[in-house]
Design a protein that fits this description.
By secondary structure, the protein is α+β, with helices and mostly antiparallel strands. It has helices spanning about 1-30, 75-80, and strands spanning about 35-50, 55-60, 65-70, 90-100, 105-115, 115-120.
């Protein structure tokens, strides 16, 4: 009887842990906040780069403003031929992506063109 109660308690604790983590996971992968009906192309200059999880990102100067560009996770960037160090401050790049519905200066990149090659990020 004691072993059974211990198992039930452990199971309940595990279930609560999974439920507690679910909103963060859903929020992270909530691509619905981007307007996927209008593909936007930007040509601009890299201002800064962050190559860390959960997604790499770039500050890009384009169309008269500074954009926050959400890229793929670092592991995917690396496997697609864009390892850390590929992007440099002052470098000119071009990309296609979707603008955030609530932040007109944020874009989720789908494709990027750098150093003469085009890379799909999704």
């Amino acid at each position: 009887m004691t072993l059974s109660r211990s198992c039930m308690t452990l199971g309940a604790v595990a279930a609560l842990g999974v439920l507690a983590a679910a909103p963060a996971a859903l929020a992270h992968h909530g691509w619905g906040s981007y307007d996927s009906t209008a593909l936007t192309t930007l040509d601009g200059t890299v201002q800064s780069v962050s190559f860390s999880n959960p997604h790499a990102s770039i500050q890009l100067e384009a169309q008269g403003k500074t954009w926050y560009i959400v890229l793929a996770p670092p592991s995917r960037m690396t496997t697609r031929g864009l390892p850390d160090g590929t992007f440099r401050q002052g470098q000119t790049i071009s990309l296609d992506g979707y603008v955030h519905k609530n932040d007109p200066a944020e874009l989720r990149a789908e494709r990027i063109r750098v150093d003469g090659k085009s890379v799909e990020l999704r």
